[in-house]
Amino acid sequence: MGLVLILLLSLPLWVRKQKNQNDYDDSKSKLSLIQLLSIPGIKSALTVFFCYCTIEATFGLWGASYLVLVRDFKAEDAAKFVAIYYAGITIGRFISGFVSLKMDNQTLVKLGQGLILIGILTLTLPFQATILPGFFLIGFGCAPIFPSLLHNTPYNFGETNSESIMGLQMASAYIGITIMPFVFGKLASYIGFSSLIWFLIIILAIKIYMNRDLNKRILTKNARQ
């Protein structure tokens, strides 16, 4: 309710885009789904969003189960560590908003990926004392990635198509959030919840690779232009 009130009060501060006589009809510039998917780098971008949200949602949902079933934590203690994970995301989002004034979006994404990897590797250590920093680092690393990827969309694909592409990216993100925690849960029921670490590492590796592929394609496109 507090956020809604702040947003309502801040409406006059938002700059409204004035449409002049020279602007073309937006409806004529809309591309079809097939045309959007043919844009260089778009498939990589969609995969990046899918993988990121898979990591965030799967760890948030199954992290406590991992602690209880693999690391022998009590359920109430495991829940506290999941709260630490979400605290990492919240604190990280707040801080990254200020850091973004000094760092570009891609640097923030790479930094976040590195922190997630460090956090995951920290969880592999056989010490209970490393659980808290591991959970916090994964959340803190997640924090800048999603907003930075969205903010970079106009740069990657141009302002004309950015609205439609953001819609595709959000769709891909929510597919990851909806499906992949379920997929991991079924997988873990057969091979055990210790597989959570390897699952996260594999998804993170795919995300890092596809993010590099996206950046290369954008650089190639810009060089040609």
UniProtKB/TrEMBL annotation:
<feature type="transmembrane region" description="Helical">
    <location>
        <begin position="115"/>
        <end position="143"/>
    </location>
</feature>
<keyword id="KW-0812">Transmembrane</keyword>
<keyword id="KW-0813">Transport</keyword>
<protein>
    <submittedName>
        <fullName>MFS transporter</fullName>
    </submittedName>
</protein>
<keyword id="KW-1133">Transmembrane helix</keyword>
<comment type="similarity">
    <text>Belongs to the major facilitator superfamily.</text>
</comment>
<feature type="transmembrane region" description="Helical">
    <location>
        <begin position="81"/>
        <end position="103"/>
    </location>
</feature>
<dbReference type="InterPro" id="IPR036259">
    <property type="entry name" value="MFS_trans_sf"/>
</dbReference>
<feature type="transmembrane region" description="Helical">
    <location>
        <begin position="41"/>
        <end position="69"/>
    </location>
</feature>
<feature type="transmembrane region" description="Helical">
    <location>
        <begin position="190"/>
        <end position="210"/>
    </location>
</feature>
<dbReference type="Pfam" id="PF07690">
    <property type="entry name" value="MFS_1"/>
</dbReference>
<feature type="transmembrane region" description="Helical">
    <location>
        <begin position="164"/>
        <end position="184"/>
    </location>
</feature>
<keyword id="KW-0472">Membrane</keyword>
<dbReference type="InterPro" id="IPR011701">
    <property type="entry name" value="MFS"/>
</dbReference>
<dbReference type="InterPro" id="IPR051788">
    <property type="entry name" value="MFS_Transporter"/>
</dbReference>
